[in-house]
Specification:
The protein contains 8 helices and 7 strands. The protein has one domain: Rossmann fold, CATH 3.40.50. A hairpin with a 5-residue loop joins β6 and β7. It binds S-adenosyl-L-homocysteine and magnesium ion.
Length: 212
């Protein structure tokens, strides 16, 4: 938690809760410690998506399919989501949940390592959501920039990593490499000529980048 707990609690008690399958998946994630996006991050993605009206979305890190099912709401009619996951159990849970949500024609779960898969993809996307393997974000970036349409958005989750990114005192030893990589990543995002980036301190930290 990188924000004051009382503020997070207030926000979470105030914004409208999800119902149906999203509420069920939130329950499942809580019980089974699956790190799905937090409610305030989910709302931010929904609002950005309403403005952008993407036809094609790419996600790295499907887990149980929660964020993919959420993002299906912001797709243009006929739009599609590709989402990459490397962990077999998550792949089957996600496919099951996506089917249950009636979205199997809309969301395509791609099994594999996000970097390997991205290097093979030759499609273009209007929105790319990174929520996997934080230490690999710097390697994802050239692929993401190549695949993102002008006017598109890159949303990167967990970029403040429990606050460690902003304060050395919070860094635990075994996380030093990830912290260094995330700092490099944020610096690349903010200094990239093709991108306009801000970093929002909600959830675990979200970077939002617009491709010019
Ligand atoms: N986006 C999901 C949560 C993703 S949690 C949601 O909000 O609903 C992160 C997921 O990324 C985990 O399921 C993990 O198995 C997967 N992951 C981590 N590194 C990966 C990689 N290099 N390639 C593909 N998936 C990866
Ligand atoms: Mg995340």
């Amino acid at each position: 938690m990188i924000c004051y707990d009382f503020i997070n609690k207030y926000i979470r008690d105030t914004i409208k809760p999800n119902s149906g399958i999203l509420a069920e998946l939130e329950e499942y994630a809580k019980k089974n410690h699956v790190p799905i996006i937090q409610p305030e991050v989910a709302r931010l993605i929904l609002i950005l998506g309403r403005l952008l009206k993407p036809s094609r979305i790419l996600e790295a890190g499907t887990a149980i399919g929660y964020s993919a099912i959420l993002m299906a709401q912001i797709l243009n009619p006929g739009g599609k989501i590709d989402t990459i996951e490397r962990y077999d159990l998550m792949i089957s849970l996600a496919r099951e949940n996506i089917k249950k949500a009636g979205l199997h024609d809309v969301i395509n779960v791609i099994a594999g390592d996000a970097l390997d898969v991205m290097q093979c993809l030759d499609k273009k996307y209007d929105m790319i959501f990174l929520d996997a393997a934080k230490g690999q974000y710097p390697e994802f970036l050239p692929e993401v920039i190549r695949m993102l349409n002008p006017g598109g958005l890159l949303i990167s989750d967990n970029v403040l990593y429990k606050g460690m990114i902003a304060d050395d005192k919070l860094v635990v030893r075994r996380k030093i490499t990830i912290v260094k990589r995330l700092r490099d990543y944020l610096s690349s995002l903010c200094n990239n000529e093709e991108l306009e980036t801000t970093i929002v301190p909600i959830g675990d930290g979200v970077a939002i980048s617009y491709k010019k």
